[in-house]
Recover the amino acids of this structure.
């Protein structure tokens, strides 16, 4: 009999189950792949190869599949995935060196190599930055300030703020049945100014 307000659920079918329960509402979490691709193209219109960095984890494979599904919407650009599933960490580092400056790179999920050796996010990001010669875009806020140029990012802080606002409404008497699930994730475009300077991007492009 107690109302439940969630955030951070990124499984649409799970959210549909919740939406059938009149005592549950909250904030969905959806990545902004298209919006981030648009940003990448706006900043680097002449980079006609877009490469996603991913691995063979469940989330990595799912995000890579979603990324590739957008290829038909951008016929002037080629989409490919450099997957950790085919390489050791050392081999992956060597392949990162081969990516030239006419490419744009989107980091999805790089945690586990073909030998099931795992690095945490910041260890993985450090390896990527040390071996890649182009800026890195991302879909989540973690990594900002550590070498990510930017993207239209998922912010758990914004999700929590929206969920807290919903909870406050309910606590002040609004029936939970009147507080609908927020299906659009409150994602925000974020760019790291120091990375912008390093990349030589002019303010007019932003």
């Amino acid at each position: 009999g107690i109302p439940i307000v969630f955030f951070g659920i990124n499984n649409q079918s799970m959210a549909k189950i919740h939406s059938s329960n009149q005592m549950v509402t909250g904030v969905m979490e959806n990545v902004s792949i298209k919006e981030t691709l648009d940003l990448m193209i706006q900043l680097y219109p002449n980079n006609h190869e877009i490469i996603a960095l991913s691995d063979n984890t469940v989330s990595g494979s799912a995000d890579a599949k979603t990324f590739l599904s957008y290829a038909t919407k951008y016929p002037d650009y080629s989409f490919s995935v450099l997957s950790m599933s085919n390489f050791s960490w050392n081999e992956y580092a060597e392949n990162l060196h081969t990516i030239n400056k006419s490419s744009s790179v989107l980091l999805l999920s790089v945690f586990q190599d073909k030998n099931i050796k795992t690095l945490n996010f910041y260890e993985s990001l450090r390896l990527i930055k040390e071996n890649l010669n182009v800026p890195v875009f991302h879909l989540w806020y973690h990594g900002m300030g550590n070498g990510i140029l930017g993207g239209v990012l998922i912010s758990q802080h914004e999700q929590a703020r929206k969920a807290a606002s919903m909870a406050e409404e309910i606590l002040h008497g609004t029936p939970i049945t009147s507080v609908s699930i927020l299906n659009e994730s409150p994602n925000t475009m974020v760019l790291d100014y120091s990375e912008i300077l390093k990349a030589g991007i002019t303010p007019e492009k932003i």
About this structure: Residues 156-171 form the longest helix (16 residues). The chain is about 35% helix and 20% strand. The mean pLDDT is 92. The first strand starts at residue 4 and ends at 9.
